[in-house]
Amino acid sequence: MNSIATLLTLSCLLLLGSSRLRVAIRMVAFQGLLLGLLQLFAVGPGHLTPGLVILSITSIVLKSGLLPWLLNKAMIVSGTKREIEPFISFGASMLCGVFLLAVSGWIVSTLLETDPIASPVALTCGFFLVFSGLLLLMTRRKALTQTLGFLVLENGVFTTGLSLGSEFSTMVELGILLDVFVGIFLMGIMLFHIDREFDHLDADRFNELSDLEIAATVVEEADE
Amino acid sequence: MNTAWALIILPVITGIISLFIDSERLRKNILVIVAFVHLFLVIRLCKGDAGELNGVWLGVDHLTRIFLSLTSLLFAGSAIYSMVYLDKHPQEDGSDLANWQFLKNRNAIYAACMQLFLAAMSLAILSMHFGLQWIGIEATTLASTPLIYYHRSRRSLEAAWKYMIICSVGIALALMGVFFLAMTATHHVELFTPAGLVLYAGYLKVRWLKVAFIFVLVGYGTKMGLAPMHTWLPDAHSEAPSPVSAMLSGGLLNCAFLGILRIYQVCVALPATAAFASELLVIAGIVSMGVSGIFILHQPDYKRMLAYSSVEHMGILATGIGLGGAAIAGAMLHAICHSLVKSSLFLLAGNILSAFDTKKVEKVTGLLKSLPYTGMLWLAGFLAITGTPPFGTFISEFTILRAALVTRSWYIAAFYLLFLLIVFIGMLTIFMQMTQGVQSEKPLSSGDHHRDDHDSPHKHTRKHGRHHAPAEEHEVSETVLQLITPVFFLSAAVVLGFYLPDSFRTAINGAATLLGGAIL
C-alpha cells in the first residue's frame, strides 16, 4: 500500500512539472490504475469481496481507460498540445509541489500525535493529491488541464478516504464513482463545445460574465 | 418507503424516455404530468403517519417534509412555465448523440434534464445516509449543467463551465468531510445517518467532527452560494433559462443547505462542536449578506441582481441557524418564503426578458404600463423579497433578528440590519427604475443584435416593434400560463405572513427541534 501511495505521489509531481498535455493525460490515467489497485490492497488479500473487485475494476476502466481516451480526443480535436505559459512556471510548480508534500506530511504528523491512523503514508499522499489538484486548477490556463486538475483532486479525495479506512458499502462507492465519472465526462463534452465556440481552450479568457466586465459594457453603451 | 424510492426513480425513467421522444408536445406533457404526479406522491408521503421513517438509506423527518414538498411544488410551477418557455424557443433540427456535440437537440435535453434534476434533488433531500446524500447533491450539479447551457451561446457556455468546475471542486471537498465523519464514526455506529450518529454522539471525536464540519460547510456552502464561494452563482442564475433559474434558486440552494443542516444536526449533539459550528455558520452568513449587499448596489443586470439576492438570503438562513433558539424556526420559515418568492421573481424576470429582450436594468422602464400584470407582481415580489410586512419573509426575518437581540449578540444584529438595509436600498432603486417612468421603446441597440446571448424569442418580433405600438405587442407576451405560478406563489407568501397552517407549524417546529432550536 505504501509503495502504491509513493508511486501516486511521484506521478503527481511529474504531472505538475510537465508541459505536454499528452504526458499529463497519461499520468492521470496511470493514477487511475494505481488508485484501483490501492482499493484492493487497502483491505488486504484475506478480506477481498466480489463487490470490492467489481468496484476496483470499474474504477480502473473508467479512470484510466475511458476518461483519458475522451480527454485525448478533445486534445487532438482542439489541436492543443502544450500548456502554454501557466501562471506559475513548471519548475516553480514542481517546487510548490514539494512544498505541498511537506505540508501534507506535517499535517499528518500532527494528526498522528492524537489519533491512530490506518496508513499515514497513504493519507499524506491523499492530502498531497488534493493540494496539487487545487494548484493545477488555479494556476493553469487551459480548460483541459483544469479538468485534469479536478481529476487529480478527486483521486486525492478517494485516497484520503481509503487511508482513513472510512468505507461505505459497495453500492454507495459505485454511486460516488459514477457521479465523478459522469461529471468529468460532461466536462469533456463541454471541452468540445468550448473549442468550437471560442477556438481555444483558455479558461482564463472566459471573462464576459465578470461583474467588472458587465459594468464596463454598460458604460460603453452609455457613451455611445 | 416505497413511495420514497418511487419519487426518485419515476423522474429518472421518464427523463431518459423523453430524451428519445421526437414529438415536442408529448415531451412537454410528460414533463408536466411527472411534475404533478411527483407533487401528489410527495403530499401523500409527507402526510403519511406522523412518525419518522428512518431507513438505512432514505428517511422522512420534518426537515425532509419541508424541503421535499417545497421542491416538488416549485418544480410543478416551473414545469407549467416551461410549457410557454419552450414554445418561444423552437426546436432545432438534428438528432441527439451525434458527432461529439451530444447536446444538440436542446428542447429534448431540456425536458430530460429537468426531470433528472428533479430526481437528483429528491434523492439529495430524501437520503439519510451521508454518502448517498453526497451522491444526490453531486447529481444535481450534473443534471443542471446542460440546463444552464440551454442557449448554446458563449456566455451560457462560460457560465456552465464555471458552475461545473467550481461546484464540483466544492463538492469534492465535501466528500473529504464525509470521509472524515465516517472515520470518526465507523467503529461504533451501524447507521451512517444523522439520527444514527446523534444516538452515538458520545463516541465521536470532537476534533474530527470539527474538521468534517469545516469541509462540509465549505463544500456544500459552495453549492449553496455562501460567500466567498458564491462566484458561480450570479453567472449561472443569470444565463440559465428563467424556469431553470427559478429551480436553481428555490430548489437547488435548499438541497445544499440541507446537506449542511444534516451534519449540523450531528454537531448539535455535542456541546463543544455545537458552539463551534454555530459560530462558523453565523460568520459565513453575515459575510454572504455583506458581499451580496455590495454587489446589488448599482447592479446593471436584473437577473444578476436576483442571483445576488439569493446569496443574501442564503446568508440569512445560515445566520439564523447559527444563532440558534427561535432563529432556527425562523430560518425554516424563511427558507420556505424565500423559495416561493425568489422563484416567482425569476419567472417574472423571464416575462420581462421575453418582452424587452434585454437583461439591462436601464433599458427597462415603465413596466407597470407596458406589462401591467407582470409589473404589479414584480413590485409585489420586490416587497416580499426585501421582507416588507404583509409577507411571510417579514415574520421570518424579524424572528431571526429578535433571536439575535434576545441572545445579546449586538454586533450580529447590527450587521444583519445594516446589510438588510443596503440590499433594500439597492433593490429599491432597481425596481423603481424598472417599473416607474415612461414606457421604454423597444431596445434595438446595435450591441444586442450581434450577440445572441440572451433569450431572444423570435427575430421577427423585434422588427415588428418598430412599426406597431409597443403596447399592442406587449399584451401578447403576458399569458395566463406565464402568470399563474407567480400569482400562486406570491399569494402563498402573503398567507404565510398572517397564518401558519398547523401542518406547517408542526413541520417547522419539528425541524427546529432536530437542530437544537426552540419551537415557534
Structural notes for this entry:
The complex is a heterodimer of chains A (224) and B (520). Chain A has 224 residues and is mainly α. Chain A has one domain. Helices cover 79% and strands 0% of the residues of chain A. Chain A has helices at 2-17, 21-43, 50-78, 90-114, 120-139, 143-164, 170-198, 211-223. The longest helix of chain A has 29 residues, at 50-78. With 520 residues, chain B is mostly helical. Chain B has a domain at 270-441 and 468-520. Chain B has helices spanning 2-19, 24-47, 62-88, 106-126, 130-148, 154-185, 194-199, 206-224, 232-239, 242-268, 271-296, 302-323, 326-356, 367-370, 372-385, 392-406, 410-435, 446-450, 459-467, 470-476, 480-498, 502-514, and strands at 53-54, 59-60. Chain B has a two-stranded antiparallel sheet. The relative contact order of chain B is 0.10. Residues 95-100 and 443-476 of chain B have low confidence and may be disordered. Classes of the chains: A mainly alpha (224), B mainly alpha (520). Chains A and B meet through α5, α6, α7 and α8 of A and α5, α6 and α9 of B.
